[in-house]
Design brief:
The complex is a heterodimer of chains A (249) and B (254).
Chain A (H helix, E strand, L loop, with lengths): L6 E9 L5 E10 L4 E5 L6 H8 L7 E6 L2 E2 L5 H7 E4 L3 H4 L5 H11 L4 H14 L15 H13 L5 E5 L7 H13 L3 E6 L2 H7 L2 E6 L2 E7 H6 L1 H6 L16
Parallel strand pairs in A: 3-8, 3-9, 6-7, 7-8
Antiparallel strand pairs in A: 1-2, 1-4, 4-5, 9-10
Chain B lengths: L15 H4 L2 H17 L5 H17 L4 H7 L4 H13 L4 E4 L2 E4 H27 L2 H10 L4 H30 L10 H28 L16 H24 L1
Antiparallel strand pairs in B: 1-2
Classes of the chains: A alpha/beta (249), B mainly alpha (254).
């Protein structure tokens, strides 16, 4: 028997309380260990979809399963351990007085204490290449460091799938590359929500386009980005002067 | 702590006062203040002893007098109020350097000044030897309502973020030629304050989502705990106990 995929979303539909329909039946499956980019223009429903993955929003219709476990009221605790959500603004994600307490927040909510908690914090900070900043307050770190600590805060929960919302936004080129190296070194499933198409190409074999509340395309990132007509139809554009080579160099 | 930057009230150190757990220091300072307030105002010598006790704490914590004095500026409004009392007070008058002052007013001014100063110095010493976040850990240990402690914690974390945002808004205003010269500019400032409030409120919502995403269920997990031994409690009790003995003596002598 094959293991369940990291993420399976079936016929997911959602309307906001004011009646605005954001998702019209999303179907997607992400296998264990895959790195997938979720592309889409502003207002396509990307954030709404992400909020469903850990049960912050609950499906109006359809189902979400994380490693075989359906998102329901009574599974929320375990779901939130399995889905590590990294928000776009690290100042939203890092709310504790010190980095160490922030990284410990997630596992501590899971009941981890003492030496094991210390170990989790240390391990998570090492995985993002910042082993020495545990006692610093988050607002004294550079933006790039804060984004990496934000990744560490969810790695400490040992998630099944890491979901990143616009991971490259506001990063300078060096921080952007450092984050890419870190993401590549992790052995977790990654879903990366972005409209930074070169970053998607660099990190993800496979891409999905979410547009108008449905999955409009699903395939190898290279093929999707080479399809000008497809991109144009969904308000996506490669940066000026950027061309996707037919074959990986 | 490895950070190079500290809250301006805090003075890093590793003395016996710094090391005392915050949950011992907080009640010790509060008890000291109560005893000071209960000391009769005519027992001048008792206030001298109280002041010496605080000087002893400052010496043990290696907090220099200048550090304390600069932070006592916070007391200035009370000083002004106290200085006004002898002038506006009623009752019997006494001549001091040719000025007629109210005797009762003089007593009231002395009473306020002496007691407020001792209280302020005690709080400054507490803040100088206790990191803000330790103060909150102590407050939680003392079972202060969770919600209040969490609000204070978020204030501590987001103060700089909000000040930054405020600074950016000011730069944006001034870059477009705005200068707050007189009262006509108040509406603009009021709207900026409103915008800042909305932004902070929305940030609060996003932070809450981030907390829920990491399993927050209404109570903060205890990550750092500070335990207090009986010895720590005993050390912390020295200050209020000595003050209490002094006050008790002054009661029995009066």
């Amino acid at each position: 028997m094959t293991p369940s995929p990291s993420l399976r979303v079936q016929r997911l539909a959602y309307a906001y309380p004011d009646g605005t329909q954001a998702l019209f039946g999303v179907d997607l499956t992400i296998g264990r260990g895959e790195r997938v980019a979720l592309l889409g223009p502003n207002g396509a429903g990307k954030t709404t979809l992400v909020m469903h993955l850990n049960g912050i929003l609950t499906a109006g219709h359809g189902t979400v399963e994380v490693a075989g476990l359906p998102v329901r009221k009574n599974t929320l605790g375990e779901i939130r351990r399995r889905v590590g959500l990294v928000f776009q603004d690290p100042d939203d994600q890092l709310f504790m007085p010190t980095v160490r307490e922030d990284v410990a927040f997630g596992p501590a909510n899971l009941g981890v204490r003492g030496a094991e908690l210390e170990h989790r914090v240390k391990e998570a900070l090492e995985r993002v290449g910042l082993p020495d900043i545990a006692d610093r307050p988050p607002h004294h770190l550079s933006f790039g460091q804060r984004r990496r600590v934000a990744v560490a805060t969810v790695l400490a929960m040992r998630p099944e799938i890491l979901v990143l919302d616009e991971p490259s936004s506001n990063l300078d080129p060096a921080s952007r590359r450092e984050l890419a190296e870190i993401l590549r070194s992790l052995d977790v499933t990654v879903l990366m929500v972005t409209h930074d198409l070169p970053y998607a190409l660099e990190l993800c074999e496979r891409s999905l386009i979410l547009s108008g509340g449905v999955i409009a395309a699903d395939g190898p990132t290279r093929e999707i980005l080479a399809d000008d007509a497809l991109l144009a139809a969904h308000r996506l554009e490669l940066p000026y002067g950027f061309a996707v080579a037919d074959r990986p160099s | 702590m490895g950070a190079g930057h500290h809250h301006q009230l805090y003075r890093p150190g590793d003395t016996v006062v710094h090391r005392l757990p915050p949950q011992c220091k907080l009640p010790a300072v509060a008890a000291f203040a109560v005893v000071v307030v209960a000391t009769p105002r005519d027992a001048f010598w008792a206030f001298g002893v109280h002041a010496l006790l605080l000087a002893g704490v400052a010496a043990a914590a290696r907090v220099p007098a200048g550090f304390v004095l600069r932070r006592m500026v916070v007391e200035v409004p009370f000083v002004i109020f106290a200085l006004a009392l002898p002038v506006i007070g009623l009752g019997a008058r006494v001549e001091v350097l040719g000025v007629s002052l109210s005797a009762e007013g003089l007593w009231a001014a002395w009473n306020i000044l002496a007691k407020a100063t001792l209280g302020v110095v005690a709080s400054i010493l507490l803040a100088a030897t206790t990191e803000p976040r330790m103060m909150l850990l102590g407050a939680r240990r003392l079972r202060l309502p969770q919600t209040l402690v969490q609000i204070a914690m978020f204030m501590l974390r987001y103060m700089d973020v909000i000040l930054d945002e405020m600074r950016r808004m000011r730069v944006a205003r001034e870059s477009r030629g705005f200068a707050a010269r007189d009262v006509r500019q108040v509406p603009v400032l009021a709207k900026s304050a409103g915008a800042l409030f909305i932004r902070s409120y929305e940030r609060g919502e996003r932070v809450h989502l981030a907390m829920l995403s990491r399993g927050y269920n209404g109570s903060m997990p205890i990550i750092d705990d500070v335990r207090a031994s009986a010895a720590s409690w005993a050390v912390a009790a020295v200050l209020p106990a000595a003050a209490l003995v002094t006050a008790a003596l002054s009661w029995s002598l009066s």
